[in-house]
Amino acid sequence: DTANQIVAAIRELGGIQNENAKKLLDAAKNNINQATVEEIYARMSGKNKLAAAEIIAEKGWVPKGPTGEAMIRDTTNNMGANSDQAKRYLTTLEKSVSKIFGNVTRKLDFASEAATPESLRKMLFQNAARKNEFTDESQVEKYLKMIEKDSKEDQDKAKEMLEKSMGNIAKTEANRKEMLERLAALPTPTEQQKDLRKILAKAMRKAG
Q: What digits encode the pLDDT tens for the residues 127-160?
């Protein structure tokens, strides 16, 4: 079958690091179906398996639930969590996040698990921030901690996104005022709590 032919050809060429093997897989990916790519993924190992995982992400074919969760965790780890390949993979993967996890709670629970690589965790929290899905102060503080070493420009963009979450966390004007006063009264606030206070204050000013 097609999967057998592609697997055999890639192995014969010495693996995906061979330019001809790479071209073969690139040419094939436009004409193969999900089952074929999954078979290639299952039968390959090392860099060859990672190449198949990239196609699965690109096509939006990452399985939902535990199978997909294990796939994206293993793939990110095996690529080298902070490698350029992993960064490309995670950027592509983000479009499938809702399908893989089904709901925000599971997405953030998975992201917070110790076994989840930091770069994958950050992408999932960023996805939640972008979609205005945070409902708790602790979630915002976790995300602020993740981005503390980003460039000022990237941090400013992230904090602007987070302003929209303030209405989910403190739903009424009175709730937001109480939250602001509580944050201001903390004797030794963390940097994230200081940032949260500024984000909340800015959101309240904009709301008038």
A: 999 999 999 999 999 999 999 999 999 999 999 9
Copy the structure tokens of residue 134: 């945070």
Buried b (16+ CB within 10 A) or exposed e, 117-145: bebbbbbbbbbbbeeebbeebebbbbbbe
Please tell me the chain's helix, strand, coil percentages from 3-state DSSP, rounded to the nearest 5: 75, 0, 25
Comparing CA positions, the residue from 78, 35, 69, 84 lying closest to residue 55 is 35
- Cβ 148 vs Cβ 111: under 8 Å: no
pLDDT tens track for 10-39: 999 999 999 999 999 999 988 899 999 999
Record the pTM.
0.91
d(CA 162, CA 158): 6
In order, the DSSP letters of 85-147 are: HHHHHHHHHGGGHHHHHSSHHHHHHHHHSTTS-HHHHHHHHHHHHHTT---SHHHHHHHHHHT
| Cβ(136)–Cβ(169) below 8 Å | yes
* Per-residue DSSP letter, 190: -
Helix (H) or strand (E) holding 59: helix 46-59
